Structures are given as C-alpha cells and as structure tokens.
Amino acid sequence: MAPIVPKPRPKNLDLRTIRLPLPGIVSILHRASGALLFLLGIPLMLAGLQVSLHSREGFAEVGVLFAHPAVKLLLLAFIWSFAHHFCAGIRFLLLDIHKGVKIEPARTSSLWVMIVSLLLTLAAGVALW
C-alpha cells in the first residue's frame, strides 16, 4: 500500500486579490459586529445610561449628545452591528441544526442576512432622524 501524499494546494496570501464568497463575508461581519458591540457599544450605552439616570441635568446632557449628527451616525453603526449580529446569529443557529447547509441555501440565507440587516438599519435610521 502506497503512502498517501497530499496534493500541493495553491496558496494565495494576497488579501487584496482573494475573492471571499458571500457566506464568508457574512461570517466575518458577524464576528466584527460582535466585537464592535462588546468592546464599544455596550460600554458606551451603559455610560450614557448611568449619566442619564444620575440626574435631570445628566438626562438632558445625554439628550443633547444624542441629537448631534455624528453621534447619530455612531448609533446607526451600532444599530447595524446589532441587526447584522442578530440575523447572522439566527442563520448560524439554523446551520448548526443542519438547515441550509448546502451551497445554494447557504448563499441565499447569507444574502437574506445582508438584506434584512440593512433594511432594519434603514428603518432605524429613518426613526432616528
């Protein structure tokens, strides 16, 4: 019996030329959105909640801060992060129970994750402004 020799696989380590499929992009964005929420979103929201609950003046300060357009854009980024993380999390839970694991359903579900998360962000943006 001959020893099994692995075939040499092509290696492309140039990140600018790698074409990642949509399910891979959704997976990376799921991790990035989770990190964004955990490292920035939760601490900033808790700090704002603490200031707003401390006094009436603090509540007014947070209201003025949230009215600033740059802060609204930051909130929109957090809203997208949450919406994408939520939708992709549901997709990954379904993949864990072997629903939609084949290539076409996986591509379709990843496309739906992107569409739904962007629509939810758009709806929140309309309500925010």
Characterize the structure shown.
By secondary structure, the protein is mostly helical. The protein has one domain: Up-down Bundle (3 helical TM bundles of succinate and fumarate reductases). The protein has four helices and no strands. It has helices spanning 22-54, 56-66, 69-96, 103-128. The longest helix has 33 residues, at 22-54. The termini are far apart.
Specify the CATH homologous superfamily. Fumarate reductase/succinate dehydrogenase, transmembrane subunit
Order of helices and strands: HHHH
- Overall pLDDT confidence: 93
| Helix segment tally | 4
Report helical residue fraction. Answer: over 70%
| Rg | 21 Å
Q: Give the second-level CATH assignment, the architecture.
A: Up-down Bundle
Q: How many separate structural domains?
A: 1
Biggest β-sheet description: none
How much strand? under 5%
Through-space gap between termini:
71 Å
Can you count the beta strands? Answer: 0
Q: Assign the CATH class.
A: Mainly Alpha
Poorly predicted sequence stretches spanning 5 or more consecutive residues: none
In CATH, the topology is named 3 helical TM bundles of succinate and fumarate reductases
Summing up helix and strand content along with how strands pair, one would put the structural category as mainly alpha
Shape: elongated
Keywords for this structure?
elongated; 3 helical TM bundles of succinate and fumarate reductases; mainly alpha; 129 residues; 76% helix
